[in-house]
């Protein structure tokens, strides 16, 4: 029996609604396979917690989370709480404290009707972005000098350590080697004459250890263009924290929107828990209406199962997502369907049960 301890942080807005459907998927796996079990503990942290307690999470929150195998996060952010607080004091804090230095964002077209790009198919849009997740431009380093005076100066410092840069690039090379795919590095060395020159040099240095991996390098502005006009160029992409954040939202746009965007924040060594999340935000404007799209949250369960080395379950979840996207009466209004959040989740469980049986994943 494999038991996985999951910390649930449903968070704000539509977070609790979509996380509930992801938990439904995990409980279905548990029901279908007697060799796998999950235990869940929910934490009430987020913007409402901040408004009541003056902090985004408990003082000993990191210590509480340490004992879990994974963190399943819904969404962070709500009107009345500055994004600088909601983001840095919960999401980024967890990423940094648990050294979740790898952010994996699949850019995969699951149904050709979802892309706004003309004449692009599933074969054209199918790649993985590996984003450095612990330092770079989001390190929070800098200063604010002479505040309120005419000579006011703001310094925002990007931090690129040898350790941090080399390990994310090595992780990307390993992924490309394992999956027999090309690797593209995205930087901006022509303008950022320290950080990105260093990035490019490390990319070349590490690449000498992986002669079997075919590589490319693009400036971030060119890469942004190619994401839209020629996404078939990419198979595995590695880039910095800021560039990865921006590029993956372009990736979401070309594959169906933020309602399908998922992300895994990984500590590959498993010294600390990793965190899995839909990355669509809290969408307070539709919170409580029962129309939020839970597919990104369910896709993050697929990533979680892959990380637990239960790749067959990760694959069958992804396959079931592709199936449900063909059923207009089973998907939410943002995708042109008529279903509710809960209705989509219920239908997903039905389809997952059928596909698991076909794949012989049911164990009594």
TrEMBL record:
Protein name: D-malate dehydrogenase (decarboxylating)
Any one GO molecular-function label of the UniProt entry: magnesium ion binding
Matching Pfam families: Iso_dh
Cofactor field: Mg(2+); Mn(2+)
Gene from which this protein is expressed: dmlA
Cross-referenced SUPFAM superfamilies: Isocitrate/Isopropylmalate dehydrogenase-like
Organism: Filibacter tadaridae
Occurrences of domain Isopropylmalate dehydrogenase-like (ranges): 5-348
Keywords from the UniProt entry: Manganese, Metal-binding, NAD, Oxidoreductase
Enzyme Commission no: 1.1.1.83
Family to which the UniProt record says this protein belongs: Belongs to the isocitrate and isopropylmalate dehydrogenases family.
Cross-referenced SMART domains: Iso_dh (SM01329)
Listed Gene3D superfamilies: Isopropylmalate Dehydrogenase (3.40.718.10)
